[in-house]
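Known limitations

Structure tokens in this collection are predictions and should be treated as such. Users comparing against experimental data should check residue numbering before alignment. To illustrate the layout, the record for Family 1 glycosylhydrolase is reproduced below. The input appears on top and the generated tokens appear beneath it.
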Amino acid sequence: MFATGIENSAPTIEGGRVRRDQMAELGHYQRWREDFALVRELGIDVLRYGPQLYSTLTGPGRQDWRFADETFAEIRRLGITPIVDLCHFGVPDWIGDFQNPDFPALFADYAEAFARRFPWVQLYTPINEMFITAVFSTKYGWWNEQRHDDRSYVTAIKHIVRANLLAMQAILRARPDAIFVQSESTEHFHPECPAAMPHAERRNAERFLTLDLNYGRRVDSAMYEFLADNGMTRAEYHFFLREAPRLKRHCIMGNDWYVTNEHLIGADRHSRAAGEVFGYDTVTREYHVRYGLPVMHTETNCMEGPAGDEAERWLWKQWSGVMRLRSEGVPVLGFTWYSLTDHMDWDVALREVRGRVNPLGLCDLDRRPRRVGLAYKRLIEAWRPVVAAQASCLRLPVAA
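Generated tokens:
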């Protein structure tokens, strides 16, 4: 699956007073037909896309599907395969934030309503980047709750993962052959010095928390104590161990990778970006060994710099990592450049409204393909017959 996405992050900042709706800020609501046509023009067959949860879920059991009806009809007409992204970093104002214990059940009802309205859709990412959603909202204090304490962090984790699992169960009631692509940030922490080794070990265990719970894998003893000390009950923990394994056979592990995904942690426990040390293939291999699932490279991008070829070189570097994993027998089923167009204010993680365009897309905000967009088109044209033949030999699924 060769994929891109329409950036639909929608967290709140400034105590909930400001909603960062990237679909609005990037002009998608006015130019959605043009955006979908660009997907086809670039030879891309799969699109990570979804309606905004905050504006579609208008109350308990109430949805406004008007925009989704139009856009998904066009996606279907064009023959694009959607991976439907149902929650991307934010919830409706009337729910509040991820501390609300009602969120999982409300979200599951919404997911089932979507699946019944659009029964032709098979691929879903119920909640995008569960780990990052919790970290940015309750550890760094940047979005939504804007908290900095471990109890709020654990509460967010257990509500987010429970919502993801309940949504998968609900979608399967409507579409028994649904497939779930868990788009999750792939992280690694490196110790800066010997004194930092225990801190790196802890953070490297913590990075797996959302996927461990989502796939029903027992966490290690230090993480269990951390969860229990901060409000996760035995009954809540055993819910994940009981329910998650029943859903795992419907899952593809999505791994998101950016140059900021490796971290250098010091003796004072503070971390900073390390740049690429191991790289996508090495770190993704850790995740594959841990969970034993098929893999999809679900996000990457690189800012176009003064030389003009930085993003193109990053594209080929990522693709080389994907092909290396496949050559080693890791079933990598897809690759994604995220997103179709440039972003806005992601250089400050949407924390401030600056109106600064980040040149990260396959196309600029005038919908003109960037150099990396044309390179991705060439890559798809050259490699599609090869990976299709490999998939046939290995009996791997190929997108219709």
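For this record: Residues 265 and 271 are 4 Å apart (CA to CA). The domain at 2-394 is CATH 3.20.20.80 (TIM Barrel). Please report discrepancies through the issue tracker.
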